[in-house]
Every structure is written in C-alpha cells, then in structure tokens.
Amino acid sequence: KNSPSRKEGMSEFDEIRLKREGIEIMKKIGSEFKWKLNNTTGVACVYFHRFYMLHSIQEFPCPSTALACLFLAGKSEDTPKKCRDIGNNALRFYSNTFRVSGHQLMDDIFAMERVVLIAMKFEFSIDLPYKFIINYANDFKSNKGYDPNMVSDIVCSAWPLVNDSFFTHLCLAWEPQVLAVSLFWLAIKL
C-alpha cells in the first residue's frame, strides 16, 4: 500500500499487473540465454522488486527496468550477456512494448542500469531460497525414517513455488532461509 507507485495514485491491480509483465519479460529473455530462475533470472527479479520499493512505475516503466535488472544480474552472477543481445531479444519478443531502434534500446538499458545501481546502493549479493531448499532436503535425507524419494518429490514440488514467489515481493519481506522453510513445508502439505 505504501509503494511509490501507489502513492502516486496507481491502483494495486495495475501495479501487480505491470510488475508481473516485467517479471515475465525477464523470465522469457533469461530463458533465451539458458538462465534459470534459480540463479541469474531470480537475482534479476529481486533487483526489480528492490528497485520498485524506492521508485514508481510511473517514473520508470517496468519493461526498461526489467531489462536493466537482467543486464546487471548477468554481471553480478558471472553470466554476463551483451546489452545488444538483451535488447535484440527484447525487440524480437516484445516489439509492441519496445518501440525503439536497437541502438536506442541499448542506450535506454545503459541509462536505466545506472539508476538501478544507485537505487540498490551498489549492493549485489543476493541469496535465493533454492540452495536452502537443497540444504533442508539433504538434512531430511540424512535423518533415518525419511524416504529419499519422498524428499526428492518434495523438492520437486517446492521448486516451482519458489519460482512463483518471484512474482511477489516475498523475496524482500522474508529472508531466503525463511522462504525456503515455508515453501518446503507447503510442498509437504500439497
């Protein structure tokens, strides 16, 4: 309720919808680079949510921010991609969203990168819940009485729950360990 976008009059529905569209852009372009949500693309999603805790969608549209977050996450996760490649994929898949030339889009990504860097105070280190789910699964497997196949099934159920959590701001509200335990427990209950 207190996000900058909401303070500027955007409805909750529109804010959620626009952020989802930004996350979808990152997922689609990230998948083209064979990035997975459990690394570079997931980190980009966290950057994206952190950015919009400080800035409004009205001031900085989600599509451009999404591309800049992907570009930065590629660098921070040692999976860098050229700005040109990110821009070309954006134009290929989202030509109705990005109605500019490739060179203009690259300039926009570079400009937005600086804004995101400043908003994040150059803090790039992000832990995602995935590694903690694996740790918890290994703990369960090492304890007698737990079927390793059942534990593997729980991990397979928890993984998409973590993926879906990136569409929300849960990654900002809770530590990744707490999310991992919660989603592991939810997967057990499913």
Automatic annotation (TrEMBL):
Q: List UniProt keywords, sorted A-Z.
A: Cyclin
What name does the UniProt record give this protein? Cyclin N-terminal domain-containing protein
Record's InterPro entries?
A: Cyclin-like_sf, Cyclin/Ssn8, Cyclin_N
SUPFAM superfamilies with a match to the protein in the record: Cyclin-like
One GO-annotated biological process of the protein: regulation of transcription by RNA polymerase II
The entry lists its GO molecular-function terms as:
cyclin-dependent protein serine/threonine kinase regulator activity
Note the coiled coil stretches, chain numbering.
none
User: What's the domain of life for this entry?
Assistant: Eukaryota
| Domain Cyclin N-terminal as annotated: residue spans | 21-124
Instruction: Tell me if NAD is a UniProt keyword of this record.
Output: no
